[in-house]
Write a structure and sequence with these properties.
This protein is of the alpha/beta class. Helix content is 24%, strand content 22%. The protein has 13 helices and 25 strands. The radius of gyration is 23 Å and the shape is globular.
Length: 563
């Protein structure tokens, strides 16, 4: 245990109602990557007649809720999809052999012999986390003891000005943690704790209600192509089949980090449960994240591991990914560049994503004077090195200090970082623990904790905390001196990409994903060959539509103008 945690752990609350776990096998990072068999874990068996719960989601909130409910004696089933057989949600990580791996459509394929010397690991979403809440401090301490999380030792953190790098003193920094070998190692470790047989890698579609028992039956969509990154943007698998599960569930937990009016928001036959879905659809809003990973054959002469550039309008944060625990790429050095909120919003349209990633790469070399090092770069701006997350971070949260949602009439709950407060790992995990304990109390007829929202008539509120570190909120981490703070903006619909397209990005496929809102009235499928790309009269006709759309939609006008 880190020394700085000694006093905090003394104050952490105990949970005497949970079964005691003893002699648990320590999970190494190697075993975590290989998903060790059930014989390598200690499992708490559920008693006959135990209540069953389906957890919908693939991130840390979903897996934390599943593990806690498993401890409480529930029969758990996790249904989550991050492309292929991976979990992590916005704590998604990538392992890539620069010589052998290729993207073939949505598939990650291996061509040639793999080599550890050519393999890099990087996080495509959240980069690290801090812990202040006693419940979360206790959970992180457990992750460290299990061997899939470690403290990032003495990272050089600060800001970049015209005068160079200005570090923050180590005395100002709280302990910073990351998954060993990637942030998704946390989710993978919890999968092993509850048992991989409890996880179904699929998209939850609809819960039907049994008229006799009142229990839920779930239909899912299975990815038959094993697509690697099909989940980006909340879209469905490109090749799939529908399946109705044989299991029945007493409770449902929605732990999705996704937003409104999208194809992957599960629906319910039960009217009370559907009201919970509509409550989310009406209130959830997200800001876009754009993340670019750069790999170099030669180390860059930069004196930091985490840096926020003051002078750059394009860059929000730069992280030396290969300096994080378990991420050393040997002879290769990996850097992650996160776009500023305004820049990501400007390039939120799928058609402009590649242009935005190229501009972000150029801004990186220009800001830090690294033009001569471009020849040593071995990555590209394509998938998976350059990603656009339409639902990167929530900009609204529950009001009144609530951290979870539970509808007693439907026995449906919600946990996520947008319930727990400012977007961060701590908020997601605290929300999941709160909801899991609430379900355990409800099972025995006990009262709900004050932190659980049970009435769906409470308005949500904007997250008031500015985001000095761009990608998330880090409790206890100081703001870089004199850095400009960015308050998260409120999209009109669920996210800036949705505002652009006029429809959720997951509903837009193929060529229509490249259309601007004022172009969507065109009947593209009926066009003769050679009439695409806005040629001739079509282009002039669209000009008037663009002007009309910009007058009616101020938010989109700001995006077009680059505001």
């Amino acid at each position: 245990m880190p020394r700085r945690w000694a006093s905090r752990m003394a104050e952490a609350p105990a949970h005497p109602e949970l079964p005691v776990e003893s002699n648990r096998n320590k999970i190494s990072s190697k075993l975590s990557r290989k998903r060790s068999s059930s014989s390598k874990r200690t499992q708490i068996e559920c008693a006959a007649g135990a209540k069953s719960v389906c957890i919908v989601g693939a991130g840390l909130a979903a897996m934390t809720a599943a593990r806690r409910l498993h401890q409480h004696g529930f029969k758990v089933r996790v249904v989550g999809y991050c492309g292929g057989r991976k979990l992590g949600g916005r704590c998604f990580s990538e392992e890539w052999d620069m010589g052998a791996h290729r993207m073939q459509g949505p598939l990650k394929v291996t061509k040639g012999r793999r080599s550890e010397a050519n393999t890099v690991r990087f996080d495509t979403g959240c980069q690290w986390f801090t812990a202040q809440n006693p419940m979360f401090v206790e959970e992180v301490q457990r992750w460290c003891s299990q061997g899939y999380v470690a403290e990032w030792q003495s990272p050089r953190v600060g800001r970049w000005t015209c005068g160079g790098f200005e570090p923050l003193g180590q005395e100002q920094m709280p302990p910073i943690f990351a998954g060993i070998g990637g942030m998704d190692r946390i989710a993978e470790g919890m999968v092993q704790e509850i048992g991989e047989d409890k996880v179904l890698y699929a998209v939850a579609r609809r819960f039907a209600s049994d008229p006799d028992t009142g229990k839920y039956k779930l239909s899912v969509e299975m990815d038959t192509a094993n697509g690697h990154l099909s989940f980006i943007g909340g879209n469905l698998p490109q090749q799939s089949e529908s399946v109705v599960l044989d299991e029945e569930f007493d409770y449902v937990v929605m732990a999705q980090g996704l937003a409104a009016k999208q194809p992957r928001m599960v629906d319910f036959e039960n009217i009370h449960a559907q009201q919970v879905v509509e409550f989310l659809r009406e209130n959830l809003r997200y800001q876009t994240l754009m993340v670019l990973t750069l790999v170099f054959r030669k180390p860059l002469p930069l004196p930091f591991d985490v840096c926020k550039p003051d002078a750059s309008a394009e860059i929000g944060l730069v992280v030396r990914a290969s300096s994080k625990p378990g991420m050393d790429g040997g002879e290769l050095e990996t850097w992650t560049v996160c776009a500023s909120a305004a820049f990501a919003r400007q390039f939120a349209l799928p058609k402009t994503k590649n242009d935005g990633l190229k501009a972000l790469r150029e801004a990186f070399f220009r800001t830090f004077g690294l033009g001569e090092y471009q020849q040593h770069m071995v990555s590209s701006h394509g998938t998976p090195f350059g990603l656009l997350w339409p639902h990167g971070q929530p900009v609204r949260k529950l009001a009144g200090g609530k951290t979870a949602i539970f509808c007693p009439e439907a026995q449906v709950g919600v946990c996520a970082d947008y319930c727990g407060g400012a977007p961060c790992v701590q908020s997601a995990v605290v929300s999941a623990l709160t909801l899991a304990d609430a379900l355990a109390s409800h099972r025995h007829g006990g009262p709900m904790a004050d932190a659980v929202l049970t009435h769906l008539d409470v308005p949500w509120e904007p997250i008031p905390i500015p985001m000095p570190w761009t990608i998330a909120h880090f409790p206890g981490m100081p703001t870089p001196p004199t850095s400009s703070l960015v308050t998260l903006e409120q999209p009109e619909r669920c996210c800036p990409t949705h505002d652009w397209l006029g429809s959720h990005p997951g509903l837009v496929f193929g060529r229509t994903a490249a259309l601007k809102p004022w172009e969507r009235g065109e009947v593209r499928r009926s066009e003769p060959k050679g009439m695409g790309k806005g040629r001739g009269k079509g282009k002039r006709h669209n000009k008037g539509k663009k002007e009309s759309f910009m007058k009616q939609t101020p938010y989109a006008r700001d995006v077009v103008m680059g505001a």
